[in-house]
Amino acid sequence: MIELEDKEWTVYVCQGSKCKKKKENFLKPFAKALKKEGLKGFVRIQKTQCNDQCKCAPVISVEPERKWYGKADEELARRLIGKIKDSLERKPDGRA
Ligand code: FES
Protein backbone atom coordinates (compact mmCIF):
# COMPACT_ATOMS: atom_id res chain seq x y z
CA MET A 1 0.00 0.00 0.00
CA ILE A 2 1.14 3.53 -0.69
CA GLU A 3 -0.33 6.67 0.78
CA LEU A 4 -1.19 9.25 -1.86
CA GLU A 5 -0.65 12.94 -1.37
CA ASP A 6 -3.89 14.83 -1.11
CA LYS A 7 -4.78 18.44 -1.78
CA GLU A 8 -6.35 20.77 0.78
CA TRP A 9 -9.54 21.23 -1.21
CA THR A 10 -11.38 19.14 -3.74
CA VAL A 11 -14.04 20.60 -5.98
CA TYR A 12 -16.16 17.94 -7.65
CA VAL A 13 -17.52 19.29 -10.91
CA CYS A 14 -20.35 17.43 -12.58
CA GLN A 15 -19.62 16.67 -16.20
CA GLY A 16 -22.93 15.07 -17.04
CA SER A 17 -24.47 16.37 -20.26
CA LYS A 18 -26.61 19.12 -18.66
CA CYS A 19 -23.81 20.47 -16.48
CA LYS A 20 -21.14 20.16 -19.15
CA LYS A 21 -23.14 22.47 -21.42
CA LYS A 22 -22.82 25.14 -18.73
CA LYS A 23 -19.15 24.75 -17.87
CA GLU A 24 -18.59 28.38 -18.87
CA ASN A 25 -20.69 29.38 -15.84
CA PHE A 26 -18.36 27.98 -13.18
CA LEU A 27 -15.57 25.66 -14.28
CA LYS A 28 -13.78 27.97 -16.70
CA PRO A 29 -13.73 31.04 -14.41
CA PHE A 30 -12.85 28.90 -11.39
CA ALA A 31 -9.92 27.17 -13.13
CA LYS A 32 -8.71 30.51 -14.48
CA ALA A 33 -8.86 32.12 -11.02
CA LEU A 34 -7.03 29.19 -9.42
CA LYS A 35 -4.19 29.65 -11.85
CA LYS A 36 -4.15 33.44 -11.46
CA GLU A 37 -4.08 33.22 -7.64
CA GLY A 38 -1.41 30.48 -7.57
CA LEU A 39 -3.76 28.05 -5.83
CA LYS A 40 -3.60 25.12 -8.25
CA GLY A 41 -1.35 23.17 -5.89
CA PHE A 42 -3.96 23.28 -3.14
CA VAL A 43 -7.09 22.41 -5.07
CA ARG A 44 -8.05 19.29 -6.97
CA ILE A 45 -10.76 19.60 -9.57
CA GLN A 46 -12.40 16.23 -9.84
CA LYS A 47 -14.83 15.70 -12.68
CA THR A 48 -17.83 13.51 -11.94
CA GLN A 49 -20.63 11.92 -13.88
CA CYS A 50 -24.23 13.11 -13.55
CA ASN A 51 -25.29 13.60 -9.92
CA ASP A 52 -29.03 13.39 -10.64
CA GLN A 53 -29.52 17.09 -9.88
CA CYS A 54 -29.73 18.17 -13.51
CA LYS A 55 -32.39 20.83 -12.87
CA CYS A 56 -29.74 22.69 -10.86
CA ALA A 57 -26.97 22.47 -13.49
CA PRO A 58 -24.16 23.19 -13.23
CA VAL A 59 -23.70 21.23 -10.01
CA ILE A 60 -20.56 21.07 -7.86
CA SER A 61 -19.64 19.81 -4.42
CA VAL A 62 -16.79 20.99 -2.27
CA GLU A 63 -14.57 19.28 0.29
CA PRO A 64 -13.71 19.97 3.07
CA GLU A 65 -16.85 22.15 3.21
CA ARG A 66 -19.06 19.13 2.59
CA LYS A 67 -21.44 21.37 0.61
CA TRP A 68 -23.25 21.00 -2.68
CA TYR A 69 -24.01 23.93 -4.95
CA GLY A 70 -26.40 24.17 -7.86
CA LYS A 71 -26.52 26.85 -10.55
CA ALA A 72 -22.82 27.29 -9.89
CA ASP A 73 -21.59 30.50 -11.47
CA GLU A 74 -18.73 32.94 -11.60
CA GLU A 75 -19.82 34.54 -8.33
CA LEU A 76 -19.54 31.16 -6.59
CA ALA A 77 -16.13 30.69 -8.18
CA ARG A 78 -14.99 34.01 -6.67
CA ARG A 79 -16.45 33.13 -3.25
CA LEU A 80 -14.71 29.75 -3.23
CA ILE A 81 -11.39 31.27 -4.20
CA GLY A 82 -11.79 33.65 -1.24
CA LYS A 83 -12.56 30.80 1.15
CA ILE A 84 -9.61 28.77 -0.10
CA LYS A 85 -7.25 31.72 0.30
CA ASP A 86 -8.58 32.43 3.81
CA SER A 87 -8.14 28.81 4.89
CA LEU A 88 -4.55 28.72 3.65
CA GLU A 89 -3.67 32.03 5.27
CA ARG A 90 -4.79 30.69 8.64
CA LYS A 91 -2.16 27.96 8.43
CA PRO A 92 1.40 29.08 9.23
CA ASP A 93 3.00 27.24 6.30
CA GLY A 94 -0.02 27.34 4.04
CA ARG A 95 -0.50 23.59 4.48
CA ALA A 96 -2.65 21.45 6.75
S1 FES B 1 -25.70 16.52 -15.56
FE1 FES B 1 -24.97 17.37 -13.71
S2 FES B 1 -26.41 16.74 -12.24
FE2 FES B 1 -27.04 15.76 -14.08
Give helix and strand order, one letter per element, not per position. EHHEEEH
Q: What's the helical proportion of residues?
A: 25-40%
Total separate domains:
1
The appropriate CATH architecture is 3-Layer(aba) Sandwich
Class by helix and strand content? alpha+beta
Number of E-type strands: 4
Main beta sheet: 4 strands, mixed
Instruction: Give the CA-based shape.
Output: globular
Tell me the strand percentage band.
Answer: 15-25%
The pLDDT mean sits at 92
Q: What distance lies between the first and last C-alpha atoms, to the nearest angstrom?
A: 23 Å
Ligand inventory = FE2/S2 (inorganic) cluster
Number of helical runs? 3
Distinctive features:
single chain; 96 residues; alpha+beta; Glutaredoxin; four-stranded mixed sheet; 4 strands; 20% strand; globular; binds FE2/S2 (inorganic) cluster
What does this structure look like?
The protein is of the alpha+beta class and about 100 residues long. The chain has one domain (about 10-90): Glutaredoxin (3-Layer(aba) Sandwich), CATH 3.40.30.10. The chain is built from three helices and four strands; from the N terminus they run βααβββα. The protein has a four-stranded mixed β-sheet, with helices on one face. Helix 2 (about 25-35) packs parallel to helix 3. The longest helix has 16 residues, at about 75-90. The radius of gyration is 14 Å and the shape is globular. FE2/S2 (inorganic) cluster (FES) binds near residues 14, 16, 19, 51 and 59.
